[in-house]
Design a protein that fits this description.
With 142 residues, the chain is mainly alpha-helical. The protein is 81% helix and 0% strand.
């Protein structure tokens, strides 16, 4: 599968995971309509994917950080008390995505014309959704 179709598929999965209610909530947070919110989702997914690829291309340390983060996200969920924290407390992939959120917000704001502060709040809402989609995809691979 090409990178473009993979990003489009991830974008569709994120939009599906959001559902209509949360997409409308995101639109309100961004100060746009649902169509504009979908554009932000697409731009954000593309930028986050690109950011992960760039980090992996920075050298052995960056590549290892991305591999470790993805491996952690793909690991089967822990059961019982051990689940306290998990993705909600961050995790490696959440941390990587959070580090990229400000530059991504600025790039998406520039592309869409929406205020960067609104886009940053929207991305904060999207990161857990992206993580959920990636975890579900990994579970289907197992």
């Amino acid at each position: 599968m090409s990178e473009q179709s993979s990003e489009n598929s991830l974008e569709k999965d994120v939009i599906d995971e959001l559902g209509d209610d949360r997409l409308h909530e995101l639109a309100g947070l961004l100060g746009t309509d649902p169509s504009g919110a979908q554009d932000v989702v697409g731009s954000t997914v593309s930028a986050l994917s690109g950011g992960l690829r760039e980090r992996a291309d920075e050298g052995p340390e960056g590549a290892q950080e991305v591999r470790d983060a993805i491996a952690e996200a793909e690991a089967p969920p822990l059961q019982g008390v051990a689940t306290l924290g998990g993705l909600a407390s961050g995790g490696l992939l959440a941390g990587l995505l959070a580090k990229m959120s400000r530059p991504v917000a600025n790039a998406v704001a520039k592309k869409t014309g929406l205020p960067a502060a609104n886009v940053a709040r929207g991305i904060e809402m999207l990161i857990p959704v992206v993580l959920a989609v990636m975890s579900k995809r990994a579970a289907r691979k197992r």
